[in-house]
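Researcher: Sequence recovery benchmark, item below. Answer with residues only.
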């Protein structure tokens, strides 16, 4: 029996015998030299290191392991960056971040060639729509009476699909969407689950998220066809699922201005000490957000999503209130929410967090989110420079948008003391990114490589609260083919009930 099978990791059996190149013959890699680019190369003489198994019982109390020798981007200015350093984890928490930590009896993860950084944080996602992925790739947000609005999100996704969801559809969408983002290194999400047609729907959403084992802020939000009394079910949830704050899932509430139970939601949220999130798409609210902002209602417990089409005076009120701002840059640009207000936010001294919003129209991976914000802000400033303007704001850097996607996300989700950076004492939500990969090597700049080169294929290891969830490029504890079949069956059911065909080449 091989050592890996013996230790209970049969899935890695044989992996060590891979060659660098299929059909490789001839000179060994040591002989590879300039001028030999067309020569066949063989790794036969250079044995690939045996891939180690993940530390056992990771995340369990007192269980220690060491992530050794990675390029560490802590996103904590007090901890700093390291060309090569170690991260020591015990139980759920980060114990130390510095070079040359003595491992003692801790198991070791070799992070040589990897970037070690905090997991990404998505501050606004509607995961129940995972089943409708790319259905509305070319759609608009609403029919705003202007050209192109006929096929839109409100009419199709919320109007036709959402009402026919059964609890089992909610479960698989939440689970599959959570695992997919986990696989892409997004260790925390704020799920605005607008699918609470019945308490059973709500329970199914929570179960799907729980089964994924990801850190999640579950935002109980109004939903199409909701017949519930808002307050009653939130009180039930708080008692039944969220009595403790020391758990992976916490609760927030959707306080949408356009919902009939707006006042109720805010009252319930504040009486139960729950943070309140809401969408602010200026042109659809006809000044209602400004009116509410002026009443002094906003505070640090609010997360304001999109914030397009909001006037400067209202932005000042938002800045003074301490509310967080979440931007879904690619979605806002594609679906006509309005220009993502990244300049307005920064001008007010508000650092935005980033969010994926809906996979019916755009991927939820965070490299896309970071690149969207990075290129948009720089385009606006660069255009002004080319027009001859001289009093210009700073250009966003790669590090800036990583901060939006990590630390700021944690703060906007009221989890700043728990996650968002590699800080001793915080929980260990960590990703290892492969900087030796063909789309990244050689590594010349860590934040630059993450933002301008990488994609989800580079997410090699993912850790949530100390527990290893993805290892050597493979999600653990998840049968992807079975889950994929289940969500496809759910898709078939939903489309049939909504009386809409699956049209693989439609618009
Ligand atoms: Zn949204």
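Model:
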């Amino acid at each position: 029996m091989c050592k890996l099978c013996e230790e209970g990791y049969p899935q890695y059996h044989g992996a060590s015998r891979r060659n660098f190149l299929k059909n490789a013959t001839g000179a060994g890699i040591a002989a590879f030299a300039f001028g030999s680019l067309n020569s066949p190369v063989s790794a036969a003489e250079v044995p690939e290191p045996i891939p180690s198994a993940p530390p056992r019982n990771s995340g369990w109390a007192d269980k220690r392991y060491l992530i050794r020798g990675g390029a560490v981007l802590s996103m904590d200015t007090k901890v700093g960056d390291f060309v090569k350093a170690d991260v020591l984890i015990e139980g759920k928490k980060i114990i130390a971040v510095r070079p040359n930590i003595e491992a003692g009896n801790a198991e070791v993860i070799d992070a040589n060639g990897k970037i070690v950084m905090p997991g990404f944080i998505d501050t606004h996602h509607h995961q129940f729509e995972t089943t409708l992925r790319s259905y509305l790739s070319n759609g608009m947000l609403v029919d705003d009476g202007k050209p192109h609005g006929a096929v839109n999100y409100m009419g199709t996704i919320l109007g036709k699909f959402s009402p026919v969801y059964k609890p089992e559809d909610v479960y698989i969408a939440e689970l599959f969407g959570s695992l997919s983002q986990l696989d892409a290194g997004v260790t925390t999400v704020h799920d605005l689950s607008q699918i609470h047609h019945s308490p059973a729907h709500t329970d199914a959403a929570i179960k799907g998220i729980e089964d994924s084992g990801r850190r999640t802020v579950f935002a109980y939000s109004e939903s199409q066809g909701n017949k519930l009394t808002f307050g009653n079910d939130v009180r039930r949830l708080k008692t039944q699922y969220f009595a403790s704050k020391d758990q992976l899932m916490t609760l927030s509430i959707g306080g949408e201005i356009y919902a009939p139970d707006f006042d109720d939601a805010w009252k319930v949220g504040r009486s139960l000490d729950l943070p309140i999130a809401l969408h602010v798409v200026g042109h659809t609210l006809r000044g209602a957000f400004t009116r509410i902002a002026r009443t002094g209602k906003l505070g640090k417990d609010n997360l304001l999503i999109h914030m397009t089409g909001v006037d400067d005076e209202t932005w000042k009120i938002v800045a003074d209130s301490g509310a967080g701002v979440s931007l879904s840059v690619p979605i806002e640009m594609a679906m006509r929410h309005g220009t993502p207000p990244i300049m307005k936010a920064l001008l007010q001294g508000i650092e935005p967090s980033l969010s994926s919003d809906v996979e019916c129209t755009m991927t939820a991976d965070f490299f896309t989110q970071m690149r969207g914000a990075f290129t948009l802000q720089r385009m606006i400033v660069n255009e002004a420079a080319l027009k001859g303007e001289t009093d210009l704001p700073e250009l966003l850097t790669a590090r800036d948008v990583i901060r939006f996607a990590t630390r700021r996300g944690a703060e906007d989700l009221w989890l700043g003391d728990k996650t968002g950076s590699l800080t001793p004492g915080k929980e260990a939500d960590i990703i290892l990114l492969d900087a030796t990969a063909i789309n990244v090597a050689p590594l010349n700049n860590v934040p630059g490589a993450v933002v301008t080169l990488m994609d989800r294929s580079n997410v090699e290891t993912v850790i949530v609260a100390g527990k290893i969830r993805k290892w050597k490029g493979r999600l653990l504890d998840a049968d992807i083919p079975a889950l994929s079949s289940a969500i496809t069956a759910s898709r078939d059911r939903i489309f049939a009930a909504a009386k809409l065909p699956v049209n693989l080449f439609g618009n």
